[in-house]
């Protein structure tokens, strides 16, 4: 029988993703974060060397072995970075109404011009196009386009310094999502057994398909929805992805701020429809970078993501570079757990539940939820090789806890991101009788059920083959 960890059972169903950085990368801090509530650790490949990330992966796997609990690791690729060049004095002040040129020349910029080393932008932008610099703090409108330069007019001015980012709202750029650096980082992440690959700069389904060719089934692909272009083809992006992230920071730069809350809700609903886990990210508890408690608005923001139906909420700089990484995770854990106790949320889940597809797997999962709620079962045990059955079960959003049972440690780690799932590694079984017996034993050992309690078990027959969930049993724990 697989080893079952004692004492590490979350009080909540929504998962927490914690970004690792200088404030949280030590072995002691990583273990404290995990025990406090982090379910998945995010490695941000926009920062740090591969050797540094390798050391963090090794520390996480040591904690996993020590605690006997599977831990998910998200390798978040940097993606293309569109930036202006450097300036002779480190920066210039752009004044409203003045002209400013962006060109391909490598020489330092001044108050009249700056380098923009991206010919793709020169090709895509035209008169009337907007360019947002430094996260939208500076806005330029294109007045003239050539293959070598763009003449612009300053709409919103300010100080522009070296290597600030550039966004082009409303334009799909002919730039692949994977750069040379991303390909190197992707190979590294797969070699080191990362469970999710965060794909940045997704503009079209082909971006996900390109990553899939490289990843295969060695990891789940989590597509970051941060470009408006992805919204226009979100159904196709979802079909090709294993999960998505609502990257609200980047969306908020390229779209009006008042649109972002609506997009969050729409993307979560779309992810539910396709049965894909969805992460809500960016600035959830940002004040805790410097302060030991969040603002009331931040607590409400986290609660909104829970009410919207997110599978997970994410911390970025709060846990990577903030002064209070453990306290931030603890506070997020408290907020989520308290919101999940609310009777209105339980009622809202019913309305968010998508209609089952015409398949035996969806029918079994829908029936398992109904049976578990009717008999007040203590757990729904879902056996799965690939994890797809467990994700389908999570899509039902049952009030009953879900035990995700799998003989694959890799699959168990991927389940760390999925709503309501307590993942456990189990021994391979060959009959439904063996499966039911093992499920009952694991439910009892992990503290979900006691003797004479009932649980619901779902699995696929014949065993040893991925897919085809077609069996449901009710059993009493002995």
Characterization of the model:
The protein has 478 residues and is an alpha/beta fold. Helices cover 37% and strands 22% of the residues. It folds into three domains: 15-79 and 176-342, TIM Barrel; 91-167, PK beta-barrel domain-like (M1 Pyruvate Kinase, Domain 3, Beta Barrel), CATH 2.40.33.10; 353-476, 3-Layer(aba) Sandwich (Pyruvate Kinase, Chain: A, domain 1). The chain is built from 17 helices and 21 strands. The strands form four sheets. The protein has an eight-stranded parallel beta barrel, surrounded by eight helices. It has a six-stranded mixed beta sheet with strand order 6-5-9-8-7-11, with no helix packed on it. A hairpin with a 4-residue loop joins strand 7 (130-133) and strand 8. The chain is elongated.
List its traits:
TIM Barrel, alpha/beta, M1 Pyruvate Kinase, Domain 3, elongated, 8-stranded parallel β-barrel, 22% strand, 478 residues, 6-stranded mixed sheet, Pyruvate Kinase, Chain: A, domain 1
Strand and helix map with partners:
Blueprint: E1 15-20, H1 27-36, E2 40-44, H2 50-67, E3 72-76, E4 91-94, E5 99-103, E6 113-115, H3 119-124, E7 130-133, E8 138-145, E9 149-156, E10 158-161, E11 166-167, H4 180-191, E12 196-199, H5 205-215, E13 220-225, H6 228-231, H7 234-240, E14 243-247, H8 248-254, H9 260-274, E15 278-281, H10 296-308, E16 312-315, H11 317-320, H12 325-340, H13 343-352, H14 360-375, E17 380-383, H15 388-395, E18 402-406, H16 409-414, E19 421-425, H17 432-445, E20 454-460, E21 469-476
Parallel strand pairs: 1-2, 1-16, 2-3, 3-12, 5-6, 12-13, 13-14, 14-15, 15-16, 17-18, 17-20, 18-19
Antiparallel strand pairs: 4-10, 5-9, 7-8, 7-11, 8-9, 20-21
């Amino acid at each position: 029988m697989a080893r079952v960890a004692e004492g590490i059972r979350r009080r909540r169903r929504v998962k927490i993703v914690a970004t690792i950085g200088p404030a949280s990368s030590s072995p002691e801090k990583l273990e404290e974060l995990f025990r406090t509530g982090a379910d998945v650790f995010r490695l941000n490949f926009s920062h740090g060397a591969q050797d540094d990330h390798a050391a963090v992966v090794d520390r996480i796997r040591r904690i996993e072995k020590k605690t006997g609990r599977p831990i998910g690791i998200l390798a978040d690729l940097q993606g293309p970075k569109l930036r202006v060049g450097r300036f002779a004095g480190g920066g210039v002040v752009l004044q409203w109404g003045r002209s400013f040129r962006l060109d391909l020349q490598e020489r330092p910029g001044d108050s009249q011009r700056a380098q923009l080393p991206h010919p793709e932008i020169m090709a895509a932008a035209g008169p009337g196009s907007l360019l947002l610099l430094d996260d939208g703090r500076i806005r330029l409108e294109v007045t003239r386009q050539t293959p070598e330069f763009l003449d612009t007019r300053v709409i919103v001015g300010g100080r522009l310094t070296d290597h600030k980012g550039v966004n082009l709202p409303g334009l799909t750029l002919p730039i692949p999502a994977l750069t040379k650096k991303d390909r190197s980082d992707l190979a590294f992440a797969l070699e080191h057994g990362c469970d999710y690959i965060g794909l940045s700069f997704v503009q079209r389904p082909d971006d996900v398909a390109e990553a899939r060719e490289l990843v295969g089934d060695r990891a789940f692909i989590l597509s970051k929805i941060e470009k408006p272009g992805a919204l226009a083809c979100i159904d196709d992006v979802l079909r090709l992805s294993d999960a998505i992230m609502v990257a609200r920071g980047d969306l908020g730069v390229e779209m009006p701020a008042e649109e972002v809350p609506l997009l969050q809700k729409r993307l979560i609903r779309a992810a539910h429809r396709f049965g894909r886990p969805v992460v809500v990210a960016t600035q959830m508890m940002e004040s805790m970078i410097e302060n030991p408690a969040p603002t009331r608005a931040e607590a409400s923001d986290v609660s909104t993501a829970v009410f919207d139906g997110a599978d997970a909420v994410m911390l970025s700089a709060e846990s990577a570079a903030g002064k209070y990484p453990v306290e931030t995770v603890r506070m997020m854990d408290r907020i989520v757990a308290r919101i999940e106790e609310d009777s209105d949320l339980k009622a809202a889940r019913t309305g968010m539940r998508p209609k089952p597809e015409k398949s035996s797997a969806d029918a079994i999962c829908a029936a398992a939820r109904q049976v578990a709620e009717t008999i007040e079962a203590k757990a729904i045990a879902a056996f799965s090789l690939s994890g797809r059955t467990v994700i389908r079960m999570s899509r039902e959003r049952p009030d009953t806890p879900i035990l995700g049972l799998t003989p694959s440690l890799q699959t168990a780690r991927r389940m760390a991101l999925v709503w309501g799932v307590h993942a456990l590694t189990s021994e391979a079984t060959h009959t439904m009788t063996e499966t039911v017996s093992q499920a009952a034993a694991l439910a009892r050992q992990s503290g979900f059920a006691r003797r004479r309690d009932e649980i619901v078990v779902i699995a696929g027959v014949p065993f040893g083959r991925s897919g085809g969930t077609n069996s449901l049993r009710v059993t009493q724990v002995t």
